[in-house]
Amino acid sequence: MRFIILTLFPEFFHSPLSSSMLKKGQERGAVSFEIVNIRDFATDKHRTTDDTPYGGGEGMVMKPEPIVAALDSLGSGSDRPYRILLSPQGCPLHQARVEELARKPTLALVCGRYEGVDARVSHFVDEELSIGDYVLSGGEVAALVVVDAVSRLVPGTLGSPASTSAESFSDGLLEYPHYTRPAEFRGLRVPDVLLSGDHAAIARWRRQESLRRTWERRPDLLSRARLSDEDRAFLRSIGARLDG
């Protein structure tokens, strides 16, 4: 899978893209990255990419011409990448959307800066995407979130494809708690069931703890989760109120 990142700060990505999982994904040929400097597409001698907002107000706004010219340079027709503008006004990113994006052959991620980008840029992208209800100094951090979340679902990026199957949000629930050695740490013991060797009991405990954590921390997820009759019975036993 190919990622193209459009930014005013190419240096922002040098270390993250050459570390850990993303480095291994590139070495295995599963993912590739191209960084495009939006400033290279400015046409004046000062390479201007921002200007004051019409109507007045604080800050500067990124101009549409360099961004759209950069997008146009990436190809058209069958070569045209799927274009995403990282924006706090965009649709919230969630795991189901990550899975959909992982099926695209190429993603072009546009990173805004300053007070934002000229609103007309939205006519030249396929969607606007937000990683949460807060404000960042720029879209670069958000682009890295998208890259990381999507890359790990691309076959060959992680060592084992099965390693993502039981993670938080993979089935609409938060993941169960994990433990490793030692069996006791400062008076806190690993649950006995995990030491029992009873795989059926361990699987049942993990499912119930996943349900419990979701109810305690993110009850909003339960309305969209895939729940069995046994799941619903357990949730009711711990006081969860379920619709339907």
Q: What does this 3D model show about the protein?
A:
With 244 residues, this protein is α/β, with parallel strands linked by helices. The chain folds into two domains: 2-151, 3-Layer(aba) Sandwich (Alpha/beta knot); 166-237, Trp Operon Repressor, Chain A, CATH 1.10.1270. Helix content is 27%, strand content 17%. It is built from six helices and nine strands. The strands form three sheets. It has a five-stranded parallel β-sheet with strand order 2-1-6-5-7, sandwiched between helices. A two-stranded antiparallel ribbon has the order 3-4. Strands 8-9 form a two-stranded antiparallel sheet. The radius of gyration is 22 Å and the shape is elongated. The protein starts with a strand and ends in a 7-residue tail after the last helix. The mean pLDDT is 94.
**Biggest beta-sheet profile:** 5 strands, parallel
> How many domains in all?
2
What fold name goes in the CATH topology slot of the largest domain?
Alpha/beta knot
Spatial shape: elongated
What is the N-to-C succession of helices and strands?
A: EHEEEHEHEEHEEHH
Can you describe this structure in just a few lines?
The protein is an alpha/beta fold and 244 residues long.
